[in-house]
Design brief:
By secondary structure, this protein is mainly alpha-helical. The protein contains 6 helices and no strands.
Length: 253
């Protein structure tokens, strides 16, 4: 809400003190910034949970494909490793879905509900602005008759203009007072409203990653039982790849 300078159709009298208008602009500006932040956070959190679900589902798909791959079936020891991987991925997916459901219920939905309040707030501000413009228009009309020579007809019109102005002025003052009182209260309520949601979000993440540590700790123990390090496997793979490259059917021309 910006200050409207004097122009044609505007009253000469300062009907809203500049300090009051600055207070209003400051409080409404804070709420506009809060609305943008809530929208962004809600959007980012939805994207994050969607990405989490896609990740865990993809991991399950990969392990499931490996289980049915003929290459894995030929080696019993490797098949046991792939089976352990598939079990771990399915456990991860189950815990991930539980985490996402918890975040949806305790964080994403509260964000959406809080954001749904802003359209009503913005409408109240628009009604206040419309009331202010009506106030200025009628105040300008009163001033016009006050500047004219005080003849009978002019005094009648001045009286009518003042009577028309009075309820409009009272309506604006009521709307302005209500917004100036309630906008700071609404802004300050955000802490008490969101703190439980964000605490629940943190707890959901802690529970999930604690379980992941257990799941992948168990899987690591099973893999290490195979007796080969990653470096040893890398050297074996490179040696086998060199053997393949030596075949005439894949040799470079």
């Amino acid at each position: 809400m910006s200050w409207i300078p004097f122009k044609i159709g505007q009253p000469k009298k300062q009907i809203v003190p500049k300090t009051v208008e600055r207070d209003f602009e400051r409080e409404y500006g804070k709420l506009q910034q809060l609305e943008d932040q809530i929208k962004k956070l809600h959007k980012d959190m939805k994207r994050s949970t969607e990405a989490d679900i896609a990740m865990s589902k993809s991991a399950v798909k990969i392990s499931s494909d490996l289980l049915t791959n003929p290459l894995c079936e030929q080696d019993q020891m490797f098949m046991e490793t792939v089976t352990a991987l598939d079990t771990a991925m399915r456990r991860m997916d189950a815990f991930n879905q539980e985490k996402v459901n918890q975040i949806q219920k305790t964080a994403i939905e509260p964000l959406k509900k809080f954001g749904n309040v802003f359209p009503s707030l913005n409408m109240a501000v628009k009604r206040r602005e419309q009331s202010l413009q009506d106030y200025k228009r009628l105040q300008s009309k009163v001033e016009k008759y006050e500047e004219k020579e005080k003849s009978g007809p002019v005094l009648v019109k001045l009286h009518q203009a003042r009577e028309e102005l009075r309820p409009i002025r009272e309506d604006f003052e009521a709307k302005n007072k209500q917004l100036l009182e309630e906008m700071p209260k609404f802004y300050n309520s955000r802490i008490d409203y969101f703190q439980p949601s964000f605490e629940a979000l943190i707890r959901a993440q802690v529970v999930y990653y604690t379980e992941m540590s257990k799941i992948f700790g168990d899987l690591t123990g099973q893999i290490e039982q195979q007796g080969k390090t990653d470096e040893q496997r890398e050297k074996e793979n490179e040696a086998k790849l060199n053997d393949l490259r030596a075949l005439s059917i894949v040799a470079d021309d």
